[in-house]
Amino acid sequence: MRNPLNTWDRSAFHQVATRHWPGGDRVLPGLSRSANHGALWLGIAAGAAVLGGRPARRAALRGAVSLAAASATVNTLGKRSVGRRRPLLDSVPVIRRLARQPFTTSFPSGHAASAVAFATGVAFENRWWGLALAPLAASVCFSRVYTGVHYPGDVLAGAALGAGAAYAVRGLAPTRSQLAPPARPQADAPALPEGRGLVVVTNAGSGQRTSTRPDRAQEVRDALPGAEVVECSADEGEPLDKAVEAAAERARELGGALGVFGGDGTVNTAATAAVRHGLPLAVLPGGTRNHFAYDLGIETVADACRAVNRGEAVAVDLARFGDGEYFLNTFSIGAYPELVRVRERWAPRVGAWPAGVLAAVHVLRTATPIEVTVNGRRRSLWLLFVGNCTYRGLGLAPVRRHDLADGVLDVRAVYGGRLARTRLLTAALTGALKHSPVLGSARERQLRISGFRNGTHLAFDGEVMPCPERLTLEKENEALVVYRLLEE
Question: Residue 430 pLDDT > 50, yes or no?
Fold first, then answer.
């Protein structure tokens, strides 16, 4: 008795093989070859990573990982479990046939699995990019039947495996939309259509300088034509703090809001002024890393502009230390401030990323523990990290925050002692970092630190300064109102 599914499969293959498809002979065989070993999709991913911004790089990475998972599933389980023979090529015109025929079994189609996995993975990050890739993925799937190397059933099974692989990757590594920062607590902020009432300070010194980077002031004017834009450049001797202070005073006169286009250090300066003048803050990401903006859910200038137009905002925590200083992201003493100092010294000569690697190597070789008193207890520390709100990620590799108003300081420390660095590295490599006695962590509302030796530095939000004699770090809950889209 014949299997009806197998009969349908062979009949559908025969119909595709014997039908004339206008233009197919010129396009589909080449398209099928271009997708060998995932080359087509990996090429697209590489192009997006190089030419696109952070969202494009994230989508490319998710697509590539989904492709790898699908390929591994097909080659280890799918191909070996069924062992179906490839179709006979008698009914396939010679012009359509691939010059080099596959030698693996037919079920399921690895090309279809890779195509659908990549497009689905990208769609999870950005549905419009995924939709743009869908016709290309569908063409690759169809080309496998058109060239005679797969039955339609092989392609459908491969497509299902590819989609399943993308879903599995999303389950292990949720997308930003799944882990979006909660839009709480909502706060009152004026809606400023086209930016009327918004005074924006642009910092030309933030981020990596490139010849293709658009003019920041003009970018803001294009997006928010009603906003007042203040251009600040250290090359022209304009102190950022004074420019921000003047902009805040002007925004208060207008009854509007303060805006800032720059990196985390620039945003920190603007946040301090916004709190002092009782103004909401619009953050336009323009730095190298933009940690605060991304944790807030603002990935592009357009995101910030839409929130300003709508008047959508949330209240976020600040962490205060010293004489009225704040940090939005992180504070640290020990090895990290020295790493930042070395990196900033070398970056103009070798570039930001190489400088970061060289600085890390230098600090690992030369750093020594510092002796300080933390909450009344004397400690030997390689590094003390304090986050404004709880960071995800184990050990000293915090990833991001999903709540910017949780009311706590995320405190992590690497203690000094015999072979401390070796023990920490061993714990990291063996997956026992969470239980390492060298690493300590706590959630606190307040932290008192004293006993610094001369020459000790601290780092906060990417900036470095000398330590005073004593410090008190404490939370100010929901102290800053920031524009953020509440829903899309």
Answer: no
